[in-house]
Structures are given as structure tokens and as C-alpha cells.
Amino acid sequence: MPAGASGAPRDATGTAKALVKGLALVDLIAADGPLRLTDLVAATGVPRGTVVRLLEVLVAHGVLRTDASGRYDLGPQLAVWGQGFLGRLDVRAQAEDLMRALTEQTRETCFLGVRRGSQVLYIAKTDSPQAVRPAAVEGSVNPLHCTAIGKVLLAHSAQDVVRDLLAGPLERRTPNTITDPRALAAELAAVRERGYATDEIENEDGVRCVAVPVRDHGGQVVAALSVSAPAYRFPREETPDVARRLLAAAQTLSARLGYRAPRHAHEEAPSGSGTGAAAPEATSGT
């Protein structure tokens, strides 16, 4: 292929523009599809002939397909690529730089945790540079009901998971631990409503924590991110600001895991296991 003065192919710019337009078509269909040819032309403002040519290439390579009514929808090649992407994901690796940034911003300890039965398993941690800091380490566990990460994970768990936990005795770790099932059910509803959970010195004496959910490509809450600190350095009035920083980091991490936030305010994450199932009515007291 003839090259220009820079050594690049003369049609490289045109090819790149066509690629961008093609990707825009795929993105539109992923968000709003299936779509008709006229819908795609109207939405992109690209000439009809160009759209037709791009669609032909995308269909030929399995990126798009047409349904029985002639509308364009996502094709099987995207599933192949998607599985390859998901198979290479590691939430811990994806979170490392974000956790370091949170610790730099807050000068406090950041944790990443997942649910393991009725416990939180801490899979990553960035330590506060200050001498006094929370005791938990990577690989350690704590109860779900009295930790901020645990409350986030529990609030977005399936109803049977929540029901089973509420039916059993809730261990009192500190004087502030919520051990009444009805009170905990109300707390989980509040977590879902405000988007973050707090540990008001409920798990470890003198330690306050705030945590937010991390979602995967399907909208499932697969982990939670937290900032934890001695209560004398982390007054309650600072919780909203720390939560805001955590939510921004969790949004980035969730996007790295393939999550696409709802485009409109009325849209919600999928319901069901891991997506904010309503807490069941408490079955027993302690």
C-alpha cells in the first residue's frame, strides 16, 4: 500500500474514521437495540450509504446480526470477545491503583472484600501511613452484619441469604453491634437507599468504616470497597465526603469489570441475587 510522507498508509485516517463510526453503531445497538437501519441513520447523522456499508461489514464478521424483522442486534462474535475479556478479569488487580489513590487522598486504610458465606473475606488492603490503623489483614474474615463491607454485600444478596443470616444469632462484637434482626433489616434497606454502608464502631472497638458496592458486567454486586480508620481520626460528619470518594472509585472499578451504569435515572440494576434484593421480614430476635 502506498505510504505518505510520514510513512503511514494514505487511507489510515479514513480507516480510523470508519472504525469509529462502526463502533458507534455497535454502541447504539448495545444500549438501545435491536434497531432499524432508519433508526441508526437518524441517531448517528451518518449518510445512509455509509451506514449500510458499515453494517454489512459488521454483520459479515459476526459483530452484529439481523433479526426476523430486519432490525440489527448484537452478534455472536461479541459473546466470544466478552467471554475472553471476563476470563481475564481480576477484581483485585483492577482495584489496586484505585485503592492506593484512596489511601493517598484520605491517609486511611482501604479494603476490598467479597462475601464468603456469612463472612467478609478481605482480598486486598492498602495500609494507612499512620501508625494506628485497623487490625484486619488480607485473607482475614469478619462477620457480614457488623462491618461496612459486609452490610453492602448483604444488602445486595439474594433474599434467602439475608433470611438465613437474620434467622441465626447475630454476634455482638462491640456495644454498637446491631443484633436485632429487624433493626438489621432496616439498616440494609437504608444501605440500598443511600448507596453506601457504615460501620459505626460495630465490629472493632474504636474503628469507624464506610463501604460501597462494586458491580460486574451484569450489574451484580461482586465486591465492596471501604475506607476504615480509628474513630478519633474519622468523625461521623466526614462520612459523606469519604463515601463520595469511594463511590467515584467504585464506579471506575465497576466500569473496568464491564458494568454499564443505567443511562436514565429510572433504570435500575437487574433484580435478584447480588443486585439489591429486598430484605425479607426478620424471623427472630436476639
What attributes does this structure have?
two-stranded antiparallel sheet, alpha+beta, 42% helix, disordered N terminus, disordered C terminus, 8 strands, 286 residues
Topology:
Blueprint: H1 12-32, H2 37-44, H3 48-60, E1 64-66, E2 72-74, H4 76-87, H5 91-106, E3 109-116, E4 119-126, E5 141-143, H6 148-155, H7 159-167, H8 181-194, E6 197-200, E7 207-215, E8 221-230, H9 239-256
Antiparallel strand pairs: 1-2, 3-4, 3-8, 4-5, 6-7, 7-8
Pfam families: HTH_IclR (PF09339), IclR_C (PF01614)
Domain HTH iclR-type: 16-76
Protein name: Transcriptional regulator
Q: What is the mean predicted local confidence, pLDDT? A: 85
Q: Uncertain runs with pLDDT below 50, 5 residues or more?
A: 1-10, 265-286
Helix/strand order: HHHEEHHEEEHHHEEEH
The major β-sheet equals: 6 strands, antiparallel
Architecture of the largest domain, CATH level 2? 2-Layer Sandwich
Helix-strand category? alpha+beta
